[in-house]
Structures are given as structure tokens and as C-alpha cells.
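Q: Aspartyl aminopeptidase, please. Structure only.
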Amino acid sequence: MASKEVVLSAAKQFLNFVNKTPSPYHAVEEVKTRLLAAGFRELREADSWDLKPKDKCFVTKNQSTIIAFAVGGQFKPGNGFSIIGAHTDSPCLKVKPVSKVNRCGFHLVGVECYGGGIWHTWFDRDLGVGGRVLVKNGGRIEHRLVNIERPILRVPNIAIHLMRDMNEKFSPNKESNLIPVLATTVQSQLNGGGGSCDASKTEESKSANQSDKHQALLVQLLCGELQVKPEQLLDFDLHLADTQPAVIGGVLDEFIFSPRLDNLLNAYTSTVGLINSCTGPSLDADPNVRMISLFDNEEVGSESAQGAASSFQEYVLRRISTGGSQTAFEEAIAKSYMISADQAHALHPNYSDKHESNHQPGLHKGIVVKINSNQRYTSTAITMAILREIAGKAEVPLQDFMVKNDSPCGSTIGPIMSAKLGMATVDIGAPMLSMHSIREMCCTSSVLQAETLFKNFFEHYPEVFKSLNF
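A: Structure for Aspartyl aminopeptidase:
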């Protein structure tokens, strides 16, 4: 086992990543920064690609999905792909296209629930906003990232004196009870932040300016951060985020308390695994292409141009396979293998009855292999055997997870991608608690274990594939 210092060092580097990434756009930008520092170059979908062995490249979609790959030194069209798939999005509250809500002397911000969040955990949290803003700058439209890390929003709970049964059945209405407070009307008017001045505008002028769809104070804050004028704002996609940073926790410094563990942990560790696998000589002898595919919109079904259900990954794979026989792509699929890396449910000490008695993953006990005969997960005996062989070489422990027969089962991008491509796939993840809460929990050792497993996967999959005798 690695020393505690090594485990904590890897965990703290992950914390630095997650604290900078309140939205999928920030996650992709941080991944790009690390790839560029490691010698990868950016490609554009609209350009022609001229790829050679040992090239290291990446391409983005919608600035929220990224595919990065390193071409093996012995790669020829028709050879296989070693792929890790993960996702960049997490359940959150998103600012509505028209978000201005004034009620009872408060300026509120209308939000939409994105994904299957545990929404009661968003009450009484100190919230900022982060995301992207489309800005008109002269004759150009620019994509800008913004991250307001100070607490500007809050969804206040109702006092127990006014809702005596709150502890028995608190189930807030997502439309009417989950609207964050930005400011009071009184202070807004005293500070010149809108109020009666908005009423003087005509309906025609209101519709002509995107900024008028939102609270003036919020628009002023965004414009100040970006150094632009309100009329330059064309549109934006803003995610609310907890301003409390991700931290190491527990009396023994063994836990990570953090937002967005599902699934930034795997987006980050797969990136580190790919980069680390390219630092030694192993890439020179690799017949495969090593790849990470980090998709947006997994939490809402993946059916988007930048989601795993799109043709984006297939197009990238086909372009890399160009130059061989007419069936080079199809030949490559048969030699390829994909890890679908998404977080897994650890045994909950207060709800142990929710777990199948023989499948109870624990913290610090290894990466979890997820199995479901009804194909909510894609793991098969063959794909699990391949992973176990690689994990043995990496000295990373594995655990098995299966839901109870009387329990619903979640899913991942694994079934979507494997069905679309016909590619051998296994579903895995790091064990965690509080999945889909605003503050999730996992163990520090998962970061290093995932990084190590992914690095060894890229280095050893081709030789394990060759060992298959069927």
C-alpha cells in the first residue's frame, strides 16, 4: 500500500481541481490546461487531421465535452482503442433563461433543477455561480468563463415553527420553494441596483437586451467580473455551486468532503492516468490509441450533441482509423476495450439494509466493479476478467457491486456507448456516500487507486488482449 503522505498528496491535487470547476465548462478548461502542459495539442472538429504515431491530441465539443488521445508508436489503422469514459456534469441548480423573480420584497433568481439532485441539501447553503457567458466583442462572439466564488445566493429553509412536520416529511416544491434569494428590494434600491428604474423601460427595449431577463444586480456582478457592458451579453449558462471548498476530512484525514465527486473524480483521475502513461517509454511500443472521453449531460440521459449518446466519439474513432482498409474502423472495434468510470455506492452504515448482503463495497477497499444482469451496467465475465488482470498488475484492489433484486438500479454512459459502438466495456467507480448531494463523501485512497489503475490500463491492455484464448 502507498504511504499516507502519497495518498494525501494525490487527494489534495484532486481537491485543487474540483475547487476550480463549478461547471462542466470549467472542468474541460482545467483538463485542457493539464493536457497542454503535458504536450498535447488541440484539434478542431472542422479541420482536417493529420495524425501520426506518438501524436498526443484533444478535441472539444460545446466546450463541455472533451476527448483526448495519445497514438501508440506502433499504431496502424485497424488497431484497437484503449478508452476510459467519464462525464463532466453533476446535478445542480441552473439559472433559468429568464430568471428575474421579485417577490415579497426580495430579488430572487429563478433556477431549474438539472439532473437527479438531492434538492433538500441545497437549502441553507452559501451559493455562488459559475459557468460560461457568450459575449459580443466588436464583430466577434467570445466564450468566457466566470466563477463567482463568494456567497451571493441562498435558499433559506422555512422555520420549524411554521412547518411542524418538517422533520417527518420535508419535500419542497422544486418550482416554488427552491428559489434562491439574491438581495432585498430595499437595499437594491438604496444601492442603485434596479428596482423602480426597470419599470421605466418599454417592453420593446426589454426584449432587445438579454441582460433585462435577469436581476440587474446579477448582471452587474457578471459584467464586473468579465469587464464588459450589459449590452454585450448575448447569453449564458450559469450553474449554482456551493462556495464551501472541497476538503480533506475525518479525524484521521481519510475522507474527502466535496461537491461534484460524481463524476469529477473520474474525469480528473482518467486525465492523470492518460498523462502519466505517456511520460515513460510504453507509448512507443503501444499498438493502440489511448483515449479518455469526458462527456457532458450524463445526469440527464446523455442525449445531446455533446453527450455519450451522440456520434461525437464514433466520429473521432473513425477519423483516427482513416488510412487503413475499408473496414479498419470495424476491425479496431473488435480489438478495443472501454472502461466506463462513474462513481459507485459504498455501504452506508445507517442504511445497511439497502445493500445486497454479498455486495457491500467499503471505503479504502478498492475500486468497485459494477454488475447488473439487466444491462444497467455493461460489465461481463470477459470484460471483468480483463480488468482484474490489469488491476493485478497495478496492485489495485477491486470490489464487486450489485443492487438488491427489490431495489432500482442507476446507470452510466457505459450501456449507451457500448451499445452504440459494439465495444467491450466494463463499468467501475470509486466507492462514495451522499451521491447527488450538494456535498458528497469518499475516501482519500480512491484518487491514487484510480490514477494507478487507469495508468496501468493504458500500458497493459494490449498485452492482456493478446492473451485471450478464444
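A: Brief note, in case it's useful. The chain has a mean pLDDT of 94.
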